[in-house]
Design brief:
alpha+beta, Alpha-Beta Plaits, GMP Synthetase, Chain A, domain 3, three-stranded antiparallel beta sheet, three-stranded mixed beta sheet, 13 helices, 11 strands, membrane, flagellum, FliF_N_dom, cell projection, cell membrane
Length: about 500
């Protein structure tokens, strides 16, 4: 180690003795720069990496947090606006857990902790006001947990409890103001969920009595579908409109890609208008088929016999003995009875079908092709192919129209001219860059030759290679000429790199 140190020290001393004034200044500047850079790196490396602990703090919360950090003896930084507190990154998680256990921050609002310390002598009105304030605070905290929400305020109007108030005379109402984070927007489903959250958190509050606005006082709860059948049947919801647009876009893309492959890019334009049926239809269907005999029972009964039919004059005369006997006549009878029982197996089919909303009621397709590219006799074939690809059904009332019209290509020609101009400018730029590099190289070669070639045709005294390697110096005058300075630099170069100098001299001698 000592030998290495000694060698390095010797090399440095040798360099310092052989260096001129300019080289010494550059060496000192480089050394100072390296020392300053190392010091700066060490300084910034030892500084802790500060990360935000909390952002968008209220003044009360910021004061409470800084007081806690002072008690914990944790270094921290506060932003210029006082809303952001930064702590060392390696302590960020532990500090958050500690502050959360202490109930800090509160978000600038108070919740049901208001009832932790009851006050003596509170009236019912005081307790009602405290309850309303606590409920608003709890709802505010819950809403601010949404990723899109930066700040929130909740205002609740509760009906007054009175023995003389008529039933359902007043209704609870609520208003929510949201400040969203930059480039954030709430979806319709999120607004509906927020309305139901507030409505289900307040007794007697109906969803239609909840109003939500943003920081620009634009209502977010208007035209929100809360499940009303009237709204469902009166207008298209956002999701239905999105489905319609997506279907039209997919159909246009399908037909456009097919035509581009045949006629080329930009030679055809396709537009599709779809009419969808969003009614939910339930179909109950029952079919009866032909009857089939399952069992049959036949019963027949035949009866034959005779009977006496009484005859005479009605009354008491015929019933008195001694009178003339009544004459009687014999009558024969016959009866037939048939009973048939036949059981049939009936073919019965029941169908319950629910047609999902969103089926296509009608399609209108318009296709324009470039008349300069498509011939008139090809229009019919194009119409048939597009109709088949998109499933156009004329029986359903679908329409398709294909028209061949010459397209205006002036914009494309102008664009092509601009591209050609840009390509030429890029080529000229490359030529200018390479030309500049060539000029610089030529100038450097010229300057090098000028430095190495003596001025005024004055030839230096011939010096042998042995004298140059031995470091023989040329006599110096009191007033050094430019030639003598060059000779001194050559001598120093020969001392430092003797092999390279010798090779250069051999090359020059060979050229001569």
């Amino acid at each position: 180690m000592k030998e290495l140190y000694a060698k390095v020290r010797e090399k440095l001393m040798q360099f310092w003795q052989q260096a001129n004034q300019t080289q010494k200044i550059l060496a000192l500047a480089a050394a100072v720069t390296v020392v300053v850079a190392i010091g700066a790196i060490l300084y910034f490396y030892r500084q802790p990496d500060y990360q935000p602990l909390f952002t968008n703090l209220e003044a009360a919360d910021a004061g409470a947090i800084t007081a806690k950090l002072d008690e914990m003896k944790v270094p921290y930084q506060v932003s210029a606006d006082g809303k952001t507190i930064l702590v060392p990154a390696d302590q960020q998680a532990s500090i958050r857990l500690k502050l959360a256990s202490d109930g800090v921050p509160t978000g600038g609002v108070v919740g049901f902790e208001l009832f932790d310390q009851p006050k003596f002598g509170e009236t019912d009105t005081d307790r009602q006001a405290k309850y309303q304030r606590a409920l608003e605070g709890e709802l505010t905290r819950t809403i601010m947990r949404m990723n899109e929400v930066e700040q929130a305020r909740v205002h609740i109007v509760l009906p007054q409890n009175s023995l003389f108030a008529l039933e359902n005379e007043q209704e609870a109402r609520a208003a929510v103001m949201l400040k969203l984070k930059p480039y954030q927007k709430l979806k319709e489903e999120q607004v509906v969920g927020l309305i139901r959250l507030v409505a289900n958190s307040v007794k007697g509050l109906k969803p239609e009595n909840v109003t939500i606005v943003d920081s620009n006082m634009q209502s977010l709860s208007d035209d929100i579908n809360l499940g009303s059948e009237e709204k469902n049947s009166s207008k298209l919801t956002a999701s239905q409109l999105e489905l319609k647009q997506q279907l039209e876009k997919d159909m246009e893309k399908s037909a456009q890609s097919m035509l581009d492959r045949v006629f080329g890019q930009g030679k055809a334009v396709v537009r599709v208008t779809a009419e969808l049926d969003f009614d939910r239809v339930e179909i109950n269907k029952e079919d009866w088929g032909d009857k089939v005999t399952r069992s049959e029972q036949i019963q027949e009964e035949n009866q034959k016999g005779s009977s006496t039919i009484p005859q005479g004059v009605p009354g008491t005369t015929t019933n008195i003995p001694g009178y003339q006997q009544i004459t009687q006549q014999n009558n024969s009878s016959e009866s037939n009875k048939s009973n048939k029982i036949r059981n049939y197996e009936i073919d019965r089919t029941q169908e319950h079908r629910v047609v999902a909303p969103g089926s296509i009621k009608r399609l209108s397709v318009a296709v324009m092709v470039d008349g300069q590219r498509v011939k008139e006799d090809q229009v019919g074939a194009v119409q048939e192919v597009v109709a088949s690809a998109l499933g156009v059904d004329t029986a359903r009332g679908d329409m398709i129209k294909v028209t061949a019209i010459p397209f205006d290509t002036s914009d494309q020609q102008a664009l092509a001219a601009e591209l050609t101009k840009a390509e030429k400018m890029e080529l000229y730029k490359q030529i200018a860059i390479w030309a500049g590099i060539a000029i610089v190289l030529i100038w450097l070669a010229f300057m090098l030759k000028k430095v190495l070639t003596p001025k005024g045709g004055i030839q230096p005294e011939p010096v042998s290679v042995e004298q140059l390697l031995a470091g023989v110096s040329i006599e110096k005058t009191e007033e050094k000429s430019e030639l003598e300075k060059i000779q001194e630099e050559i001598e120093q170069l020969a001392k430092k790199e003797p092999e390279n100098v010798a090779g250069l001299l051999r090359t020059w001698l060979a050229e001569e």
